[in-house]
Amino acid sequence: MLKVSVDESGTHGGAPALVVTACVGTPKGWTRILRKWRPRAANYPKGYHATQARDEDNLFLASLLQPHLEASMAVVIPYEVFKAVVPHEHRSRFGAEYATAIRACVHVLAHWCDNYWYDWTTWVLETGHKGENSARRFLDSILGLPASHVHSQAWVGKNDLVTHAPDVVSYAIVSTMESARPASTRLLAEVRKSTMVRAFDRPTLEEAVAKGYDTIKQQRRTALQARKQRKNASKEALSADDALPGVSWEAPTSEHE
To answer: What residues contact 9, with CB distance under 8 A and at least 6 apart?
Structure first.
């Protein structure tokens, strides 16, 4: 089973965009990365943060990704564009930038799994983002669905070294959009080797949001039809010839209806 590790950058005040990175590896690949990275990670007892780490450590970690990961992708969502495109009612209902980026990662990696004949992925995400609850609900809703390839989710802290890989990638990408602490040219070169970047401008975000809403509506219609079919089948079964005389049977109603 593949492990997908997720972390983000660009959550500080004034950041122009949110970057969410998903790094995908086999158990063997992650073992090799963590074995080589652990001695350097020990230099950060309060938790590794790429924005505060030494340049040589960030570069070393990034250099491990391309040889040992199966895939890596980053989604970039500018805050101003998202606010302009997505109505507040939809942000409240389906989640804001973070949940949208997670949805995009799941969608792309599901197709990637189809193409490369992978069955299931287990997702490990760093806890603490304000959009975590929306992302949790979304992942819960697709767990175990063959089309999603998502088998499980786990939310962990910075003490879990597997989150460090997507952290350094997200930091490097955000640093290209602001000058607070730019990543080195060598770090950016390593990130480009390992990671596919999907940056949403206004037209592409509008298209993606429209498709997403259509998919959600279709899923709800399908679920509603399935509930109606189960209800009708239940009524037919309970009104069969073996029903007890004098007993009125009613099909059970789902608590969600």
So the answer is: 15, 18, 19, 21, 50, 51, 167, 170, 171, 173, 174
Q: Which domain holds residue 244?
A: 202-257
- 250, pLDDT greater than 50: no
Tell me: the pLDDT tens digits for 47-75? 999 999 999 999 999 999 999 999 999 99
- Those residues whose C-beta lies under 8 Å from the C-beta of residue 174, and which sit 6 or more positions away, are 9, 10, 15, 17, 19
Shared-domain flag, residues 148 and 224: no
Please give the tally of structural domains in the chain: 2
Which residue in the block uniquely carries the two structure tokens 């890989």?
A: 165
Q: Do 6 and 36 sit in the same domain of this protein?
A: yes
Q: Do 70 and 84 fall within a single domain?
A: yes
205/98 Cα distance (integer angstroms): 14
Q: What pTM value is reported for the model?
A: 0.81
Cα–Cα distance for residue pair 236/118, rounded to 1 Å = 41
Same-domain pairing of 243 and 116: no
Q: Lowest-pLDDT range, 7-11, 38-42, 51-55, 245-249?
A: 245-249
Report long-range pairs for 229-235 (Cβ below 8 Å, ≥24 apart). none
Greatest Cα pair distance, the chain, in angstroms, is: 82
Domain of 47, CATH number, reads: 3.30.420.10
Q: Which residue has tokens 């003490």?
A: 159
Per-residue pLDDT at 245: 42
Rounded Cα distance, 36 and 161, in Å? 11
Domain boundary among 200, 218, 244: 200
